[in-house]
Amino acid sequence: MSRIEKSPPLRVMWEAQGSDYVSALAWSPDATRVAVGHADGTLAIHDALDGRKMWCHDAHAMGVGSLAWSPDARILASGGLDNSAALWAPDEGTELRRLNAGRGWVQNLAWSEKGVLATTAGRELRLWHAQGDELYAFEPASSTLTGLSWQGEDRLMTSC
Asked: What are the residues whose beta carbons fall under 8 Å from the beta carbon of 1, sequence distance 6 or more?
């Protein structure tokens, strides 16, 4: 029988109101910002210390499904239910590039240590340069890709 330690209660540091419920969250690598995606497709960046909204834009017509910061925090990737991923300059809130990620919502995004972005959309896995140029599109998997994770610089794992 295991013994469960009583942990201190969680406390609210700040709250932010959005236009719809939160569908995706991601801390910046340096933990100074929080990216928040909403079910209505809006994307916002908040200051992690006080919750101040730095910017908010309509990112995806059918909702935001996933978010991932590049390792150097210079690019934020958002995945939408509209079959696209978008690359953002998080300091300015400028959309840098729109990526056609495949057929299906973009459920998973993951950056390698070298700055390669992997996306899954339905059964499709694609790799992208940080600037948004497609590196490789794999043959569709036998079923929907449900997980995505890099290990180190060049090992990628998916699940279906």
From this structure: none
Is the model more confident about 111 or about 1? 111
- Cβ(158)–Cβ(120) below 8 Å: yes
CB 122 within 8 A of CB 81: no
Q: Work out the percent of the chain whose per-residue pLDDT is above 70.
A: 98
pTM of the model: 0.91
- Which secondary-structure segment (H or E) carries 155? strand 155-159
Query: Among 2.60.40.10, 3.30.457.10, 3.40.630.30, 2.130.10.10, what is the CATH number of 22-159?
Result: 2.130.10.10
CA distance 72 to 58: 24
The pLDDT score that the predictor gives to residue 131 is: 94
| Nearest in space to 69 (alpha carbons), one of 113, 21, 107 | 113
Backbone φ/ψ region at 10: left (φ over 0), alpha (ψ -120 to 50), beta: beta
**Which of 73, 60, 50, 69 has its CA nearest to residue 109?**
69
- Residue holding tokens 């998916």? 158
Residue 5 has pLDDT above 80, yes or no: no
